[in-house]
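Known limitations

Files may contain more than one protein. Parsers should not assume a single record per file. Below, a two-record file is shown to illustrate correct handling: read the sequence, read the token line, then continue until end of file.
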Amino acid sequence: MICLRVMMAIILLLGLCGAPGQPRAAERRQLVVVTSFPDSVYLPFKRAFEAAYADVELRMINRKTSAAISYIQDRASPRADLFWASAPDAFEVLKTSGELMKLGPGLRPDPAAIHGYPLHDPGGYYAGFAISGYGLMWNRAYLAARGLPPPKNWDDLRRGLYRNHIGITAPSRSGTTHLIVEMLLQSKGWDEGWRALLEIGGNLATVTARSYGVPDGVERGRFGIGLVIDFFGLRSKAVGHPVEFRYPDGVMFLPANIALVKGGRHAAEARLFIAYLLSDAGQKLLFRTDISRLPVKRAAYRRAPKGYPNPFTLPREASAPMFDIELSRQRYHLVNTLFDQLITFRLHELKEAWALVHRAEARLGSEDAPPQLKADLKRARGLLETMPVTGPRSKNPAFADLFTRHKPGFTVSEAQSRLEAAWKSAAIRRYDEAAQIAESVLERLDRAQEPPQP
């Protein structure tokens, strides 16, 4: 494999890019980068790269992941040269739709995998530049003021004591949140995964429109806990906010990637930027407190700050499944649509129903309750956990392909519209019925405690 330094030198010798530090304004070329990263991540790379290669200007177009996919697929203007984001399944979506081109030699450094998962596309269409883990961040002061314990794992978030204390982004609006959702579905299984997500949904304070809204909400104390990609929590702690971050057991580490977009005007300069990201200088930038990402090159961790997490040395549970990137790509829009129809758009009804169920369960757990009340409450929980799509059906490509992203000014297919309407009305009925059952259980418990009439 050609080393990255040689690759960069070859590009320069061929005259595809101006010499470092020698600006030639008349020949300055604009490299268009579509990215889901916030400016706190991309600006340090932009400034460092432009300082080294002054005849190339980076134009950053910031979009949430799903909108970035649409931007590239719609071939919007200005035409993208590079796609730069965290979610690997988004790259698979674009690769499958024919929007990416192969990187060529020298742009996929060692190591090739982490815990058996490829760090670069085996087909050569995108390369990992960093590694992402996913987990829980929380505000220490917020939890302490309310007497709440820090969560240790995903299932802790199902506990009723966290009601109105959790924030998440809609996966339809955040590629990293989509990965969290898909990881839970793959690690727990479709049915148990959705049971967990729906019960966590009952404890949400909000569903934010952008992924940045979750760490911001935790930092500001608008809610206490957030489900986030690791660099949000690590960066927030590094810059001095009173927060902590934890990788739950069984977390999967996946690459954050960059890819060449087919039809871009400046492929040579685009390859040079990829080479810079993978160079020692580029990897070192990831350790900046305002970035706080995990380098993709194992050797980079020799220069890591003290206590910095190293995913290559963190153990992986033997029972943890390997992330199925193809399955995630295939049902990408189906999973997002289900989450929105059952949680995002039904949040008020879902929260009210779960609050009543949790209250009734707490009462039943501390009292010698009649079997009929326990059976009724079990039925209420079942109504809240019912899914309109089975696991096997979610893996059916013909069914999953019915779903696309909702884009402003465009309508989805008639089949998708019908299914969404059916899921909406069924969810409203189920949540209402579950709430009524739980309320009835609580009323019967109250009556049972009343002293007998003389």
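...continuing to the second record:
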Amino acid sequence: MNEEKILEYLKIISKIKEEEKNFENVEDFIFNIQNLLKKVSLKIFIEKNKITVSSENLENLDKKDNLFIHIITEDVNQFLEGKNYSNLFNELTISLIEQKNVEDLLDAILEKLEKIIPYTSANIALLENDALYYLSFRGYEKYGVEDFMRNFKMDKREFYTLKTVMETQKPLFVENTDEYPNWVIIPETQWIKSHLMIPIIYENKILGLISFDSDTPYGFKEEDIEKVYPLLPLLGIALENAKLYEKLKKELEERIIAEEKYKRSFYQIVKLASDIVEMKDPYTSGHQKRVARISVIIGKELGLSQEKIRALAISSLLHDIGKIGIPSEILNKPSSLNPLERRFINIHPEIGYNLLRKIEIISDIAPIVYQHHERINGSGYPKGLKGEEILLEAKIIGVADVFEAMTSHRPYRSALPIDMAIKELVENKGTLYDPDVVDAFLKSLKEGRIIL
């Protein structure tokens, strides 16, 4: 090789160093280097994120040519590797700051790391109670074992590699699994020939591990560990977030289950109380449930909130609970009541109120039950309340109760026609019954939402 060519090579190498400082964009850098290499009849070839520099006339190259080509190739690849790593770190840091989904973040880390550490497969796992649980994995589909990995749990009592990393808190580098005496052979992973396991430490505690597998011996180098190290704090934060997320998710699921169980138990108790009243007064069997259905439909038509609908449903189911304190012979009397008996009947809202107000969880419905026989002109009982003094929920139950009672059989009379019950509500709208409530009832009835 003549001196002129040597100088040309040296100029190119020097120029590459300058270009590395000037270019942020990888494509622009490669284009510029390609133009420089043309001067010595060299070309750039790219394969699997690696650069190869070669000549179209290989037979004309001597040992010095090959040495300079090797130096140029290494320089270009080092720049690209550094640029890829810098981009990777920036992208993942931004993802974490933006509160990206933990699983998506971990998947992105494994995908991006493949550019700087070529691997066959890799995984990120959370350490819980001396066992690894895999949160993210990649590449195992090549050998059809992704389902195995999804359900696989690695216990330190069974795997020397995991035990060693946990005790030393240092990476474990297995160059050749066939030559490693403590390698545990599993049929699904017997293709793994070299392995790299790095602990993810956050606040001096191992949260999990990132592991890399290769299906060829000596697939990794010591410097691969150095490439991953700057990412470990990021991984630590991600795993800590994952643990918090899983903890919150578990607590939420347990709370939902407990609340659902509580709701079922609560409504069973409410239904039981309603059934007890109807057992004492068999002639009104089903009355409270029908009143509850009608009341809820009216409430929805009036646009009540979900919380108010809930209170309306419970209070209408229990609106006659005070009848527990009324003698059965009065409740079941087949003829008209005398004035004393009527006075007994009229205290059932007060009895119901006194029963319910003592039960903290449903004490808010006690005033509704207390007022369901009040009328807007003050002619109702037990307090003779008027207009806005009466709760809207009580006004709704009042209309539903009157309509259901008039259209149902009683021991002292037969069920009245629906037209007569409607006439009662219409004629007394604005006098006994709230106009908005009556209108909402009639609209719902006309549209077929109230089924008798």
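Parsers that stop after the first record will miss the second one. For reference, the second record is described as follows. The radius of gyration is 40 Å.
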